[in-house]
Each structure stands twice: as C-alpha cells, then as structure tokens.
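Supplementary Note 3. Input sequence used for the single-chain structure prediction.
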Amino acid sequence: MPGPGSVQAVPGGRQQEPVRLLVVLQRCADDVAVARRLSRQIAARLAQGFGAPLRLSRSATPGLAAVACARHAVPGVDVERIRPELLDTALRSAALAPEELALDGDAQDFYATWARKEAVLKAMEIGLALPPASFAVAPSGLQWSLARQDGGRSVWVLDLVVPAGCAGAVAVAIEAGSPHTALPAPPAIDGRVVFLQPA
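The predicted structure, written as discrete structure tokens, is reproduced below.
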C-alpha cells in the first residue's frame, strides 16, 4: 500500500493519487442505541476536525461503533454482531446470491458476507434499494477486492479486523477515470484503521 502523499504511475502517463481513508472503530456498551450515539459523535468530531470535502459512513452494532471517512471516494462501513440464533433459510435466501448460498458457510461467514454487502451498498449510496441477493461479493480478506462496477464507478471492499463475535467491512466507491483509480488494478488507497479505547 502506498504511503501518505505517494503516487503510482498509471496507464496513459497519469499519476494515481491515493484515496485517503480513515476507519475509526470503538468498543462501547452492549447496547445498539449507545453504539449509534457514539458513531454519530465520532462522525461529528471527524467532520469538524477534517472539514470539507469529507465523505462519511457510520455503522453500529451492540458493543461496537464504526465510522469511515474518505476524500476522493465515497466510503461505506458496516459492523455486525454475529447472531447465529437469527440465521435461518429465509434470511440466507434474502441476503445471499445463489453462488454464495452454494458455499453453505457458518454464521461467521454469513455475517462477514453481509458486512461486505452492506458496506458496498452504502458506498454506492443506494442502501437496500439493490437487493443483497442480487449480487455476490467475494471474501476480501485483508486485501482490497473489486466488489462491483456500477456505471462509471468501481466499488472496492476490504474486511476489517474487529473484536471476536463481530464482522466488519469497509468499501470505497471511486469514479472511473478519476486520478484515483486505474481499472482493473486496485486503487491506491492510503488507509488507516484506528481502534479507540472504550470511553
């Protein structure tokens, strides 16, 4: 991954500027309302500290708040508490594409896939207007992977390292032809993940 302020050569002689991305994760009380409030507070501090043009995405699950902010891209972040007791055939069918259903993974796999999809949909700025079962996302591990090409944008996703019992992912949508991406190669993303101590 390029360091801060670095550029990479791209086809056509242009320079590829890195997308600036920051993900802030913070543990909190095991209450989704507390996590939502904390994610709003973190987002407000980031917006105040970094100013415009900053794009933000928030997520909260019992015990964990997440905020992603980016310049030169639209971020999407999602964190989920793994709850095997909620996982049934109807939920899997509503959330997973046929090729993902065929993998028949455990609850950890399901929630990791769901977090990737939710992050991608947030980065696309459409939420659940696109049914999650209508597209597949490959496991990204700890490397950026191309999740979707949507018109003039490419959407890249990365799994987050989160506390045990949770799943998380971050995505960025980058306009095609911008100096920040050169398909089919992964974009240059100057990304940082900060895990704050509980308040």
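The two ends are 31 Å apart (CA to CA). Residues 1-14 have pLDDT under 50 and may be disordered.
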